[in-house]
Design brief:
With 257 residues, the chain is of the alpha/beta class. The chain has two domains: 3-41; 49-255, Muramoyl-pentapeptide Carboxypeptidase, domain 2. The protein contains nine helices and nine strands. The protein has helices spanning 3-9, 21-39, 43-46, 59-68, 77-80, 111-126, 140-149, 206-221, 249-255; strands spanning 55-56, 74-76, 85-86, 108-110, 129-135, 170-177, 225-226, 233-235, 244-245. The strands form three sheets. Strands 3-5-6-8-7 form a five-stranded mixed sheet, covered by helices on one side. Strands 1-9 form a two-stranded parallel sheet. A hairpin with a 6-residue loop joins strand 7 (225-226) and strand 8. The radius of gyration is 25 Å and the shape is globular. The structure holds zinc ion.
Length: 257
């Protein structure tokens, strides 16, 4: 960098004598190097957003965590449940953000919730019904992006804590009729952030109450818990301190075969 450029940003230095110029140049370079070095360790997070959650953000760390604990293994749901109906809404603009948030999505869950979902699907199939999945694992950077668009914890997960979707423990889903392929009436669409979507909202037609009860019954039977404000969201207990996964679908495709 030429000394004149330094003078442009630090005009008071222009009054130094020519003898001090090499010292000034060296000082400038060292300071630049130190500042750059300080920021390098934070690049992984700085590109996205801050979280206090335990996080894995490299493929090597994720592989290691899955090798150390079989419960942390990821399962591609379409391989485990070949007939599963999947409509990943964040891979399209048909979601509340109106933006496409996923590239190359695959529905992943950890082993135990994946097995539980398979059992729930089998039980519904016996009744001529099936699960339709809207979302499962969600990359942490997408949670960050949604939070930037909608920084309201009623409607979006705060990245500071991380979402159970980021931990591959949560699903968003509804029930469809296998003959018609149509979704059962749950009273509101997916991601309808109104009190009508709350489990406690009872001013609904009897068939809607029955449909929600059916979904709740089968999900809870196989071990999922629910949240009060969203009829479509179910999650597995985080009893192993499952990490937030700060990786994209492309990264996971290299790991989960
Ligand atoms: Zn959800």
């Amino acid at each position: 960098m030429h000394i004149d450029l330094i003078y442009r940003f630090f005009p008071h230095c222009r009054y130094n004598s020519p003898a001090t110029q090499p010292i000034l140049m060296r000082s400038f370079y060292y300071r630049t190097l130190v500042v750059t070095a300080l920021f390098i360790p934070f690049l992984c997070k700085a590109q996205k957003c801050k979280t206090t959650a335990k996080t894995v953000c490299t493929k090597a760390d994720l592989v290691r965590s899955m090798q150390d604990d079989a419960a942390k293994r990821l399962v591609a749901l379409k391989k485990l449940i070949p007939g599963l109906h999947i409509d990943m809404r964040y891979a399209t603009s048909n979601n509340f953000t109106k933006e496409v948030l996923y590239r190359h999505p695959v529905a992943y869950l950890r082993t135990a919730p994946a097995d539980a979902l398979k059992q729930a699907e089998a039980e519904l199939n016996k009744k001529g019904l099936a699960i339709k999945l809207y979302d499962a694992f969600r990359p942490f950077n997408v949670t960050c992006r949604i939070w930037r668009l909608v920084p309201d914890k009623r409607y979006a997960a705060n990245p500071m804590k991380g979402s159970n979707h980021n931990r591959a423990l949560a699903v968003d889903l509804t029930i469809i009729d296998l003959k018609t392929g149509k979704e059962l009436d749950m009273g509101t669409p997916f991601d309808s952030f109104t009190d009508t979507a709350h489990h406690s909202f009872i001013h609904l037609p009897a068939h809607v109450i029955a449909n929600r009860k059916l979904l709740k019954g089968v999900m809870r039977k196989y071990g999922f818990g629910m949240v009060p404000d969203e009829w479509w969201h179910y999650q597995w207990p985080n009893n192993k301190d499952f990490e937030v996964i700060d990786l994209d679908f492309d990264d996971l495709a290299d790991i989960v075969k």
